[in-house]
Amino acid sequence: MHESLYYDKKEQNLTACRLCPKLCTIREGKSGFCRVRQNRDGTLYATNYGKVTSYGLDPIEKKPMYHFYPGAFILSLGTVGCNLRCGFCQNWSIAHGDPPTTALTPDQVVEIARMQAEHGYPNIGIAYTYSEPLMWYEFVLDTACLAKKAGLKNVLVTNGYINETPLRKILPYIDAMNIDVKAFSESYYHKNCVGRLEPVVRTVEIAHQECHVELTTLLVTGLNDSPWEIGQLVDWVASLDREIPLHFSRYFPNFEMNLRATPLATLEQAAGIAREKLSYVYIGNAPELDDQDTYCPECRKKVISRTGYNIRVTGLDGKKCRNCGEVIRITGNITDKNDLIASSFQKLV
Fold first, then answer.
1. Cα(160)–Cα(49) distance, integer angstroms
2. Are 246 and 280 in contact (CB under 8 A)?
3. For residue 310, is it within any domain?
4. DSSP for 145-176?
5. Does residue 297 belong to any structural domain of this protein?
6. Are 35 and 78 members of one domain?
7. How many domains does the chain have?
8. DSSP conformation class of 263
9. Domain range spanning residue 11?
10. On the chain, which terminus has fewer CB atoms closer than 10 Å, C or N?
């Protein structure tokens, strides 16, 4: 058990959690909405501290992260619990279930990441992902601090549903975030996620000033995929920075929702709307469309080719378009994935 950060003690042994916008008031012996912050004798504990549901070495592109160290790998791990309840959740078995867990300390996680790099695996750091990492706040904060000292990168793959004070506390240790903007509609968040849009907007706006940010929106058939709603989302992103990468992801029936899969034409239409105002737009979870390559926003020549999670640099000199000289917004080194894998296996043999 690990005492939670960001909560107030109240009369009658009540605790008031202040980590996320849910602002749960929790009675003794009960847990908050996220299921992992529990009141025991008037003290709020993070019951998932050090509990890992799964971990492995993933391509950074899987997060999805296309403009942060393209071609690299990253140690990815997750826990249980979430502070939203999306009817279409793709990781519901760990976000809302009770899967088996492995106990790891922050030191052990950092050591695993460090040893992977030493043994030839091309690992740049740690990604906190799979379920909602901000509900793992204390563990992520402790681990990220150690990872930073060890020269490793920290990446959050998050719904962005957190209060401003804890967000600003952890951001100095975070190098990149992929933030899941479910839709640009308060009613959508209320009806389909049991949450609100405004705190997510604030998180994106703050994080964009502090670290590398990419955004993902899952287009759910008939709920958030109209041209008008896509336009609202795109206008907001463009008002922040037209070079923020935006990933549209295809929905498939899952968890509590059984709508038909997002039509491919809908995804193409959304990408077309977005490309009128944004420099980097991608379609995920739809390999049929083959729309994951990076193009120069100035001359539209292909500069990075992607097949699955493998990348091939096709039109760059450094980080400039080989055709027109336009600088491509990329954080960190670019590594040709295929060459990297081959050299790693040679080292291991």
1. 20
2. yes
3. no
4. HHHHHTT-EEEEEE-----HHHHHHHGGG--E
5. no
6. no
7. 2
8. P
9. 2-46
10. C
Angle of helix 227-240 relative to helix 198-208, nearest 10 degrees, comes to 30
**209 occurs within a structural domain:** yes
Sheet of 310-313: strand order equals: 294-295, 302-307, 310-313
Would you say the pTM of this structure is higher than 0.90? Answer: yes
Element of type H or E holding 115: helix 106-118
Residues 80 and 218 in one domain: yes
Radius of gyration of the chain (CA): 20
Domain assignment present for 305? no
Cα distance between residue 180 and residue 300, in whole Å? 27
Burial class (CB in 10 A: 0-12, 13-18, 19+), 86: buried
- Asked whether residue 38 falls in the same domain as residue 79, the answer is no
Give the chain's end-to-end CA distance (angstroms, integer): 42
Give the model confidence (pLDDT) of 73-129 as tens digits.
999 999 999 999 999 998 888 888 889 999 999 999 999 999 887 776 779 999 999
